[in-house]
Amino acid sequence: MDQPMNQQMTGEQAQLGPQTVGVMAKPPAVVTGKDLSYLKDALSWELLALKKCHHYAGLCQDQEIGAFLGKVAKMHQDHYLRLLNEVNSDKTLY
After folding, report:
1. What are the boundaries of each domain within the chain?
2. What is the pTM for the complete model shown?
3. CA 44 to CA 39: how far, in whole Å?
């Protein structure tokens, strides 16, 4: 390969290797079924990662590793809530 696969932003376009892709300024007003399916998957992944990190943080005998896993669990919780907030139009948690 002659060209690196680095993504470079130039104005309103992103370059990925030899390809140029337009950058969306703001998300579309309509969420398609495929978009919704991806968002559900992303929520599931974040929740699973949160649960695993929290579980293993509680099992750790090394406090430094346990604290690190606790921070990672918090990060996944923040990601989950951020995604949920974007999906939930009336901004209420169920």
Report:
1. 31-94
2. 0.64
3. 9
